[in-house]
Amino acid sequence: MKMRWLSVPVVAGFLMVIGGQAFAADGKPNVSKDEFLGIAKKSGCLACHSIDHKVVGPAWKDVSEAEKSMSYKDAMARETHQIINGGKGKWTKVTGGVPMPPYGPRVSEGDREKLADFIVNIAR
Hints:
This protein is an all-alpha fold. The chain has helices at 2-24, 33-43, 60-66, 72-85, 92-95, 109-121. It has one domain (2-121): Cytochrome c-like domain (Cytochrome Bc1 Complex, Chain D, domain 2, Orthogonal Bundle).
C-alpha cells in the first residue's frame, strides 16, 4: 500500500515534465521574434547569422530544420551547447570552415535559453 502512494506523485511529476516539454515544443517559441532579434543583436549573433539566409554561419531556419527530428529537449541541449562552446565541422559546406566562437562567457544563461528556444522552434 505504501508503494502505491509513492507511485502517484512520481507519475504525476513525470506527466508534468512531459506535458511542459510538449507545450514548449509546440512550434511557438517562448520568446517573440523581436525579443529574439534584440538578444541576438546585443550578443553579436547577427554578425554571422540570420533567421532566413546564410551570412557567414548557417541560417537559423536551416539549423532548426536539421534538428527537427530531434526531441525538443535534445535540440535545446544541442543548441545551448553550441552557443556556450561554439563549434566547427557541422556546417563546413556552408561556412567554408569558419568556426563559431564560444558565446557562453558573453551571453547570460537566460538569454541562451531564449535564443535556443526560438531557433529550435522555427521549423516545428
